[in-house]
């Protein structure tokens, strides 16, 4: 393997996955036909400008999505980012303000010890986070409907499930109190985690979006189940300590990272979180450009 | 399509050879642009449907080098490129005439 091939292989990470092999082979074909200083200069130029190519591909992909879809996607992305910000603020606020938790829905900016802090209650943070997830699935279903396709059973079920997920923990808790059945509260509480796991596994199976994002979502979803399930049983339940504690250590960073990553992608018009890559990219590209063809 | 100078150079090169196909190095030599600039332009033109591309029809192992990717203007691309270049030329000429342009006697400016 020649040095320029190694450089191209590393630089191609910047590109969307299904464009990498083609670019490596195409660029390699050019570089192999020049030599000496010219090859060095062309390699450098090709590698330095690969982010521009990545941007063109991403813009081209986003351009295939209707403008209205992109607007919805941007709103969903912003909602996810706000949810991540709200959760971060919620975690760090007690450390910075040293004040007791506010009661009720309360968002405002306060200055404590010279630091501006967004104060968000747990309840509002929860609503924002779940609202973001809810809109995410609405986007998917909305796009399918706009394309004139029938809303398939799976999408309807996903929509129904997500609507329940958004209010699941609250409804579950209320019903469990009314019926005296703690299992209902547990079932309601774990639904957000189940939803995120299901969406991420679906993304993995459809090869939609980056693989690490789908894996991150799967881990975050499973960890959320571990956190929210035991918590619904009460603060003193031993499961909270045994399962909930370790799960929280995993859920907090992974869910936060997933929210920010997915949020940024959606904000910039990438809708492949739930939408698979185009069929030509999945089918034609590997045969068109075998990964190992570039030298 | 944003008609930057680089895009114009690339389109002119493709129009000059629109019956033929050009690959990366030929485009580099025809336009004088470095290869890193060519790839994003070709991606943009391909996404817009102005250009189509194909792999060289040969076994890379036999020739001992990677396959070339050949580009050519599509039928629609030829029409669009000519119109866009004509529009760019007209704008450039208008700018060259200056703000007074044709208002001066004899159109001098």
Report what the structure shows.
The complex is a heterodimer of chains A (295) and B (109). With 295 residues, chain A is mainly α. Helix content of chain A is 75%, strand content 3%. Chain A has 11 helices and 2 strands; from the N terminus they run αααααββαααααα. Chain A has helices at 3-11, 17-32, 36-48, 50-63, 67-97, 122-146, 153-179, 182-206, 211-231, 238-267, 279-288; strands spanning 108-112, 115-119. In chain A, a hairpin with a 2-residue loop joins strand 1 (108-112) and strand 2. In chain A, helix 6 runs antiparallel to helix 7, helix 8 runs antiparallel to helix 9 and helix 9 runs antiparallel to helix 10 (238-267). With 109 residues, chain B is mainly alpha-helical. Chain B has 5 helices and 3 strands. Chain B has a 3-stranded antiparallel β-sheet. The two termini of chain B are 30 Å apart. The model of chain B has no long low-confidence stretch (mean pLDDT 84). Chains A and B meet through helix 2, helix 3 and helix 4 of A and helix 2 and helix 3 of B.
Helix content class of chain A: over 70%
The assigned structural class of chain A equals: mainly alpha
Number of strands of chain B: 3
- State which percent range the strand residues of chain B make up: 5-15%
Judging from the principal axes of the Cα atoms, what is the shape of chain A?
elongated
Largest interface: A-B, 33 and 22 residues
| Count, helices of chain B | 5
Low-confidence stretches of chain A: 102-120, 278-295
Low-confidence stretches of chain B: none
Order of helices and strands of chain B: HEHHEHEH
Number-wise, the strands of chain A total: 2
What would the average pLDDT of chain A be, to the nearest integer?
A: 71
**Number of helical runs of chain A?**
11
Could you describe the largest sheet of chain B, including whether it forms a barrel?
3 strands, antiparallel
- Strand order in the sheet with the most strands of chain B: 1-3-2
């Amino acid at each position: 393997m020649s040095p320029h091939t190694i450089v191209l292989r590393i630089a191609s990470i910047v590109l969307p996955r299904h464009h990498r092999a083609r670019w490596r082979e195409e660029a390699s074909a050019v570089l192999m036909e020049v030599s000496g200083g010219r090859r060095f200069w062309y390699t450098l130029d090709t590698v330095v400008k690969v982010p521009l190519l990545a941007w063109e591909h991403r813009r081209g992909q986003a351009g295939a999505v209707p403008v209205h879809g992109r607007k919805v996607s941007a709103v969903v992305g912003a909602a996810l980012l706000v949810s991540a910000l709200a959760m971060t603020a919620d975690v760090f606020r007690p450390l910075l303000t040293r004040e007791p938790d506010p009661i009720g829905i309360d968002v405002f900016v306060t200055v404590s010890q010279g630091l501006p802090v967004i104060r968000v209650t747990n309840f509002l943070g929860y609503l924002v986070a779940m609202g973001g997830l809810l809109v995410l699935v609405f986007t998917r279903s909305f796009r399918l409907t706009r394309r004139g396709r029938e809303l398939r059973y799976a999408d309807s079920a996903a929509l129904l499930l997500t609507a329940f997920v958004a209010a699941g923990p609250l409804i579950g808790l209320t019903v469990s109190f009314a019926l005296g059945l703690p299992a209902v509260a547990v079932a309601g509480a774990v639904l957000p985690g189940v939803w995120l796991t299901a969406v991420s596994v679906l993304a993995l199976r459809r090869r939609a979006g980056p693989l690490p994002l789908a894996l991150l979502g799967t881990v975050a979803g499973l960890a959320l189940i571990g956190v929210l399930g035991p918590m619904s049983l009460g603060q003193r339940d031993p499961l909270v300590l045994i399962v909930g504690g370790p799960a929280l250590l995993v859920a907090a960073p992974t869910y936060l990272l997933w929210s920010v990553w997915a949020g940024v992608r959606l904000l910039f018009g990438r809708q492949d979180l739930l939408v698979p890559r185009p069929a030509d990219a999945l089918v034609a590209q590997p045969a068109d450009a075998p990964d190992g063809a570039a030298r | 399509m944003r008609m930057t100078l680089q895009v114009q150079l690339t389109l002119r090169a493709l129009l000059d050879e629109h019956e033929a196909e050009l690959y990366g190095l030929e485009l580099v030599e025809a336009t004088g642009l470095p290869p890193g600039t060519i790839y994003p332009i070709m991606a943009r033109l391909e996404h817009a449907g102005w250009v189509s591309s194909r792999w060289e029809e040969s076994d890379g192992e036999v020739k001992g080098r990677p396959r070339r990717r050949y580009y050519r203007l599509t039928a629609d691309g030829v029409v669009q490129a000519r119109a866009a270049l004509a529009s760019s030329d007209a704008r450039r000429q208008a700018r060259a005439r200056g703000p007074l342009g044709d208002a001066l006697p004899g159109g001098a400016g």
